[in-house]
User: Which sequence fits this backbone?
């Protein structure tokens, strides 16, 4: 969590998938409800700030792997 961030960009991908799927960058929270049960996913996050009409991005976080429970 970054004190000056106006929003966060979240990227999710299934283990073995070739591309990351990005959620809306102007959000403070993301629901990950459309994930397949029992599959393993990776997620990474970065902070965004809009200053003087320009968007600045922080570095991507460490990639975390989790298994969907539903």
Assistant:
């Amino acid at each position: 969590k970054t004190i000056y961030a106006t929003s966060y960009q979240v990227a999710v991908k299934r283990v073995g998938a070739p591309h990351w799927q990005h959620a809306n960058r102007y959000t403070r929270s993301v629901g990950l409800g459309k994930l397949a049960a029992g599959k393993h996913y990776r997620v990474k996050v970065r902070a965004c700030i809009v200053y003087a009409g320009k968007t600045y991005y922080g570095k991507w976080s460490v990639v975390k792997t989790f298994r969907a429970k539903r």
The beta strands are 7-14, 21-22, 40-51, 54-57, 64-67. The longest strand covers residues 40-51.
